[in-house]
């Protein structure tokens, strides 16, 4: 019985010492987020209570400490890079959709021309939608890339 109590006290002391160790106060760096799109890139690093950003264009990387003065520009650069990646994917999908319509139309033209004449209105509408989405996405992408360039130049100069 005495051995059991000593073993329990020893176990309790060991558990207490393991739980009560202080946190290591060395500096640490943690990556919060990063993204790349069409040559532009950013990485957000958290070092203790400070944020630093690596912003870049085509491999030219600059490290910027976040402050109240540049916080909005950093967030706007991040949003422009993120949005340009999404809009570029939308552009790729709409162009792929248009190519599928064109290939399907060519196959129908070779196999059955009468069926193609009957479905001409539907094919025209589907093609029009794909072309509209592709043009809108390309204009949005141009605008977002100009925004990314603008904020990149502001942040690095």
Summary keywords:
157 residues; alpha+beta; 4-stranded antiparallel β-sheet
Question: Helix and strand layout, with pairings?
Answer:
Blueprint lengths: L1 H18 L9 E9 L2 E8 L2 E8 L2 E6 L5 H41 L1 H6 L1 H37 L1
Antiparallel strand pairs: 1-2, 2-3, 3-4
Helix pairs in contact: 2-4
Provide a compact summary of the structure:
With 157 residues, the protein is α+β, with helices and mostly antiparallel strands. The protein has helices at 2-19, 71-111, 113-118, 120-156, and strands at residues 29-37, 40-47, 50-57, 60-65.
Rounded mean pLDDT is: 84
What proportion of the residues form beta strands (DSSP E)? 15-25%
Count of separate structural domains: 1
CA radius of gyration is: 29 Å
Distance N to C terminus: 76 Å
Task: Give the strand tally.
Answer: 4
User: What shape does the CA trace take?
Assistant: rod-shaped
Which strand order do you get reading across the main beta sheet?
1-2-3-4
**Based on the structure, what is the oligomeric state of the protein chains?**
single chain
Helix content: 55-70%
Q: Structural class from helices and strands?
A: alpha+beta
Annotation field: number of helices? 4
Query: Would you list the SSEs in sequence order as H and E?
Result: HEEEEHHH
Low-confidence runs of at least 5 consecutive residues: 22-26
